[in-house]
Write a structure and sequence with these properties.
The complex is a heterodimer.
Chain A lengths: L18 E6 L3 H11 L4 E7 L6 H8 L3 E3 L3 H7 L5 E4 L6 H10 L3 E4 L11 H4 L8 E3 L3 H16 L4 E9 L5 H4 L2 H14 L6 E8 L7 E8 L5 H16 L5 E3 L4 E3 L2 E8 L11 H22 L2
Parallel strand pairs in A: 1-2, 1-4, 2-3, 4-5, 5-6, 7-8
Antiparallel strand pairs in A: 7-9, 9-12, 10-12, 11-12
Helix pairs in contact in A: 1-2, 1-10, 6-8, 6-9, 6-10
Chain B lengths: L6 E7 L1 H5 L6 H14 L3 E4 L19 H11 L4 E6 L6 H9 L4 E7 L7 H9 L3 E7 L6 H13 L4 E5 L7 H14 L5 E5 L7 H11 L3 E4 L13 H10 L8 H16 L8 H9 L6 H11 L3 H10 L8 H15 L15
Parallel strand pairs in B: 1-2, 1-8, 2-3, 3-4, 4-5, 5-6, 6-7, 7-8
Classes of the chains: A alpha/beta, B alpha/beta.
Chain lengths: 304, 354
């Protein structure tokens, strides 16, 4: 599986002609994504499309001098030719139409919805396998947080079973998550297998209403009979370091525990607080992963 | 025969599962379900304590799947309906389809009272499958009566036919129950039934269930011999005896319930008595889900710390249903603290951003 290591020769901030990108979806995720993309030297956001003319996201984009429209993606593509990649931060039901519009025009997409049309991608684990994909899917926040851990152990042992429990603050679970809890659990579970390398995966999500809101926590149980604990520890630490490069608030919480062939890893995710509050690490890891994909594509395309 | 004024939904074979680390066997199920059916209970809940899809490292695998256990009940039950519980985020649609195929007819979609908007997806699915969609609205002590009723309205609008106050931590008092039933009755249509699911951590399960009925609830979740999470549930035989004494018709055979409770549940299913003791009082006092009891005891043994300290810390961190992984972290941290400062890389308190 090719992760970012295969891209190690690429200069992410390479060419002077920056990768031209746009966002469809002007809600919380789209707005946080915009804030992060503004900081990226490798990409240039040229526009944001939404459907709500009064949305805060569109207002912010306008204030930044970007092209905006509340008439949807197709209108934005008319207004701004030359877009190379679009981030879809809308909904699972809207994404297929967006993906079709974009593919017809040879524009790439990164799907932050649960639509799961394109291949599932966790950047440090398998982006290298999908550099040519027209549309990649970022699965779920739970997958972004836990697949790297499972994949790390998979490098040093056969993982018979991986089980993850993602606990997020109620405040950071929006309608997209709440209406799609089932999709969240089985998409995450499937990715533990297809991307993480586990023979079998299972995932749970728990919402907690505590005040002050808690940071995203992920417990990852990895059953790997005969695993060398020291090798696993090194692999896990390295994986956490890789994710932390683009999600600075991603870190190990309590010490690893090991019993009966099961390694238990505790990870927490604190958001950067760009647009969403810092406790919404679950949403931050999605937008950070999206930016990471774009930057790596940008780097890849300068050497193409 | 007229409808009983209060329907008994016996959950010995689901909630009781928590008390025995989910180690129910099909034989246990056949014996108890047949007896309950013969005694005339309205419905029988069967399955893993944490619901569909919960067999896991996090919650325990138990011995048998929900499909096997529900199929066993279906073999022996003639009149009573078989009920299952699904916690969105743990159980999924395919889990519900599987148990529906082997005889489950009532689906209780269970969510925290603060998170009821994750329920509609599964309430709709239950209805599509031809099941009776109901709602377990849990950790009922987290919301005041009016907010609780608003939550009930949301699931009612999504199709729930019976809405239960679930006192997961056994933390409510009778007046708290009355206020919630009354508030729900004010905002819900008459045809939506109200139910009570009590836990006995403060020794109030039967009293709370009676209070609910007196205020308008028409369904009571109860278990034989009180077998269940924490100090246990409302004891089926006891609530039936109380209601009968008050002239409230339940249409069940009290003697038969007592016999299966004392002769079989106590002898063969229960592994230890249901007690109101320092651990279960801590659950009720600190507002911690009853399902954590055995996990906290095991954590105490594993890390060499006091289970009560684990439960109190769970309360301090405001743990809700499903966070058993937190016990592993708390156990390790308490053990490290006991051994001296500056050990381990873990955070000493649950991290949150203020």
């Amino acid at each position: 599986m090719k992760g970012e290591a295969s891209l190690s020769g690429l200069d992410v901030a390479g060419s002077s002609a920056r990768f031209r990108v746009a966002i469809v979806g002007s809600g919380n995720i789209g707005s946080d994504l915009l804030a992060k993309l503004q900081r990226s030297a490798a990409v240039e956001v040229v526009g944001v499309a939404g459907i709500d003319p009064d949305s805060d996201g569109l207002a912010r984009a306008r204030a930044l001098g970007l092209t905006t429209t509340h008439e949807g993606l197709e209108r934005l593509l008319e207004l701004e030719p030359g877009i190379e990649l679009v981030f879809d931060a809308t909904s699972a039901s809207a994404h297929p139409h967006h993906a079709q519009l974009l593919e017809q025009r040879g524009i790439r997409s990164v799907d932050l919805t649960p639509a799961a049309l394109g291949p599932p991608v966790v950047p440090p684990v398998n982006l290298g396998d999908h550099l040519e994909a027209a549309d990649v899917n970022l699965i779920t926040c739970g997958a972004q947080a836990t697949v790297p851990i499972v994949a790390a152990v998979s490098k040093v042992a056969d993982v018979a079973y991986a089980e993850t429990v993602s606990t997020i603050a109620s405040h950071s679970a929006g309608p997209g998550t709440r209406e799609n809890v089932d999709e969240f659990t089985f998409a995450t579970a499937r990715s533990l297998e297809t991307v993480g390398g586990a023979a079998r995966g299972k995932s749970f999500i728990i919402l907690n209403p505590a005040e002050p809101p808690l940071l995203m926590r992920n417990t990852v149980y990895v059953e790997a009979p005969g695993v060398d604990r020291e090798q696993a520890e090194q692999a896990v630490r390295a994986a956490v370091g890789e994710v932390a490069r683009y999600v600075p608030g991603y870190r190990l919480a309590s010490d690893r525990q090991f019993r009966d062939d099961v390694l238990t890893v505790f990870v927490e995710v604190e958001g950067a607080g760009d647009y969403l509050p810092a406790y919404a690490g679950n949403l931050d890891i999605m937008t950070s992963a999206a930016v990471r994909v774009a930057e790596l594509y940008a780097g890849a395309s300068t050497t193409a | 025969m007229t409808e009983p004024r209060v329907r008994i939904l016996d959950t010995t074979l689901r909630d009781g599962s928590h008390a025995i680390a989910h180690r129910l066997t099909p034989e246990n199920v056949r014996h108890v379900a047949a007896a309950l059916d013969a005694a005339g209970v309205w419905a029988i809940a069967v399955g893993h304590g944490d619901g569909l899809g919960a067999r896991s490292l996090q919650y325990g695998f138990g011995l048998h799947s929900d499909e096997e256990l529900i199929a066993a009940a279906a073999e022996v039950v003639n009149r009573a309906k078989i009920a299952t519980v699904l916690l969105p985020g743990i159980g999924t649609r395919s889990d519900l389809e599987s148990v529906n195929a082997v005889g489950a007819r009532i689906c209780r979609v269970s969510t925290l009272c603060t998170e009821v908007d994750i329920a509609p997806q599964h309430l709709r699915l239950a209805r599509e499958l031809g099941m009776e969609p109901q709602s377990h609205v849990t950790m009922a002590h987290l919301l005041g009566p009016r907010e609780f009723a608003e939550a009930a309205k949301i699931v009612s609008d999504a199709g729930s036919e019976c809405i239960y106050i679930v006192d997961t931590a056994g933390a409510l008092m009778p007046d708290d129950v009355r206020a919630r039933i009354s508030a729900m009755r004010d905002v819900l249509l008459d045809e939506v039934a109200l139910g009570m699911h009590a836990h006995n951590n403060l020794s109030l399960a039967v009293a709370n269930s009676l209070a609910a009925v007196q205020e308008g609830a028409t369904v009571v979740d109860a278990t034989l011999a009180g077998l269940g999470a924490g100090a246990g549930n409302c004891q089926t035989e006891a609530i039936v005896a109380v209601l009968e004494r008050l002239g409230i018709e339940t249409d069940v055979d009290l003697w038969a319930l007592q016999d299966v409770a004392d002769d079989y549940v106590r002898g063969t299913v229960m592994t230890r008595p249901q007690e109101v003791d320092r651990l279960t009082l801590s659950l009720g006092y600190a507002g911690v889900p009853s399902s954590y009891l055995l996990h906290a005891e095991r954590g105490g043994e594993r890390f060499g710390v006091d289970a009560r300290d684990i439960l109190v810390e769970l309360g301090r961190r405001k743990a809700v249903i499903g966070q058993e992984d937190m016990i592993l972290e708390i156990g390790a941290e308490l053990a490290a603290r006991r051994e001296g400062p500056a050990r381990g890389t873990g955070s000493m308190t649950q991290r949150s951003v203020t």
